[in-house]
Design brief:
The protein has helices at about 5-30, 35-69. With about 70 residues, it is mainly alpha-helical. Helix 1 packs antiparallel against helix 2 (about 35-69). The protein is elongated, with a radius of gyration of 16 Å.
């Protein structure tokens, strides 16, 4: 059985993962609507940060799930 603290951490990370996915979708939509070069660079940088955080969360979730096995 999963320790309550680990389950709480997994639940928190899953929620953050979903939230970031939604944010990435919003950023992609904003970029696709066409924007100035400056705002496109800014949105691109934010998208890159969001993807890095999403990858980090995915690795943490995988690690937590592997620890439970």
């Amino acid at each position: 059985m999963v320790d309550k603290e680990i389950k709480a951490e997994i639940d928190k990370l899953k929620l953050r993962y979903r939230d970031l996915g939604s944010s990435i979708d919003d950023l992609l939509e904003a970029i696709s609507r066409g924007s100035t070069g400056t705002s496109e660079k800014m949105l691109g940088a934010e998208l890159h940060k969001a993807r890095l955080e999403l990858a980090s969360i995915a690795r943490r979730l995988q690690g937590l799930q592997n620890d439970d096995d």
